[in-house]
Amino acid sequence: MVPCRLALLMTLVAVSLSSPTPRLTAQASTEDIVLRPGRSATVAGGWTIVSDQTAADDVAVRHPDAGAAKLPHALAQPVHSFEVSFNAQAGIPYRLWMRARAQNDHWANDSVFVQFTSSVDASGAARARIGTTSAYDVNLEDCSGCRLSGWGWQDNGWGVGVLGPEVIFATAGPQRVRVQTREDGLTVDQIVLSPSRYLTTAPGALKNDTTIVPLPGGSTVTLVRRPYLQQTSATGAIVVWATREPGTPEVRVAGGSINRTVSGTSRRVSASVNGLGFDYYHHEVRLTGLSASTSFAYDARLGGAAVASAGFRTAPAAGGGSFSFIAFGDSGTGSTAQRQLAGVMAADTFDVALHTGDIVYGKSDGTGDAGYRSYSDWFFDIYAAWLPSRAFMPAEGNHDSRPSNGNGVAYLDTFTLPTNGATPPYPDHAERFYSFDYGPAHVVVLDTEFAFQDVTRRAEQQSWLQADLAATTQPWKIAVFHRSPYSAGGEHGSNLAVRGAFSPLFEQYGVQLVLSAHEHVYERTHPVRESPSGQAVTYVVTGGGGAPLYPAGNAAWTAYSASRHHYVRGDVTTCTITLRAIGLDGKSFDTSTIDRCTQLPPPAAEDVVLYTANATPAGGWRVDNDSTAAGGRHIRHPDAGAPKLSAALAQPVHYFEMTFHAVAGVPYRLWMRSKADKNSWGNDSVFVQFDRSVDSAGRAVYRIGTTGSTVMNLEDCSGCGLSGWGWQDNGWGTGVLGPLLYFGSTGTQRMHVQTREDGLSIDQIVLSPARFLTSSPGALKNDSTRRPRAPSRSPR
Question: Helix H segments across 237-369?
Fold first, then answer.
């Protein structure tokens, strides 16, 4: 028997649409019905689509042997099954044949139950119906002790030369066959329902068979890529596939009040380009005029030959509804972890898949260039269970697109993505970055590669992003791209160029969630806000899709990080996005919710209290012990008789630096506690600069690396005299306060204090937005005040 925990896990592996699949209508005939489940089945539970060069189309469906006991009868709601759609006539007896192979040629791995939607017996009574416990049995071994060997054809009879009952359908038109596990360990590549040719004889041998039954009409299609969905929206979708043969692509689509056939376009991808050793044809059929939040079935054909059948659900209408997505990156190496994670994804019930880049690599160790072969082997084959029914929307990573692989030629040839990123100066930006709506979300997919590494192209992409975000009124704005602007990981860390280019626009135009990769880890940030009035942004690094992992780390912004293979699931409503990081075991290891409707206001500004004993000194500055100083130490530039400087230096020799957290747009008063050597007015002043300081209008002032600064003079006026420690601001004159300080962005700031005249000691620096905005923290002379250091804050 299957252990309870394993049974529960298997239960999670069902792949299904959220509502019943609509029916396709077509003219049925009395010709043989030939099904190849490896390219058209919807699999659930332990059944998976596998590559097999001995199978029809080189693919089959398989339920690996897990030692489960044989079931005595079919289940009305099975965990482990696969289904295929087809058309048949009513009232005509069909002989059921199946070509299968038992794992290890063992009799305990050789049987399945088979059911249909409208099957009846010769008297017209319902029999072997889906949703019941009635079924036909197919046992590959023909008798007890007859033994098994490789592929073999078998019907639903038991015994040497014994044929099973014929299959009859009560209604003509679309039918569905469900094959459910009786005992695990079986692989199936072909199913035939024959009204004449194979009514009394098998299509092939019972053992060691090599027969591939042709598809009806004599037409054959050699699939290079099974159908996959692109650009699913509230009103349409694009069905894409590739074959060795040319022809006219068609998709018959049915759902709601719609039942029609749509023709598409094809283009040849030559062997000289793709490196596969043969030409192939890329087919696209664009479905339009569909209704929102509706389930549709589709039947793809090429020149009249069947390709595959599947189903999908359209997105909710823009601005409302709910949906779910998965997001993952750095995936395609063919690793065991990637395949395990793909199985967990196949069990999930999501609407759209977002990829954060490096879809595939050139080598299994996570190096090399993506190419046509690796997309086939390490993307399409691995995610075959859900690609026909879930929209896939990727960003290109540095392995997908780089100069050595033609800047993503294979990526652009493979995926059919929105072209709204193209502009007249740069038409080749089409499909590299783009945007789309899905229910209440506006998603921008950006390029950190071809259209970013060149600074002129980067500026064009920034302008496009600004205009795109400004134009949308969607409740949610989500950004997806490869290189992470916030990452504490041990391999790449934060990409500061990406942060500088995109993050200010995210905050300005209301992006709430950013999904990226490049670092092969999972990391979620606290909401980050660099502008006082900007949107707080949650950044998620999801780079654990299957490539070798990197070390995870922690920074001030990190809420959770882990070096784990995973994907991220997001459940979106108009008010919330709930994020779950899902590991190889199918369990969530980190959960968080972004609530758009009750978002917290910008962080409040607090007093900044710094002890200079923690400063980084340069030149003549040094940290000395001093029992009268706060913390018992101060920083000092001893008097060496140097003349007073008239202005700050862009590259000073004598200075010290400190870092602190401040909130943008908030006025701060600067105070310093200092004392002059020998209480001399010739030893009492410094220049003060910052890396992000601005004036009240937002213009840069007092910046490090310039000659602009604000000045602190301890003596309050000429002849006022000095005595010991004293607090002073950056004003000059008795009772005169200096200019207020502002910062251009919220977060970590850097202060640079450089010598104006040597001979000064400093032990405390205060930047106050309220408490000491108009009054000093202590006395101007003979002061003994020690302000308590405020607790450190992480950037938000």
Answer: 271-274, 336-347
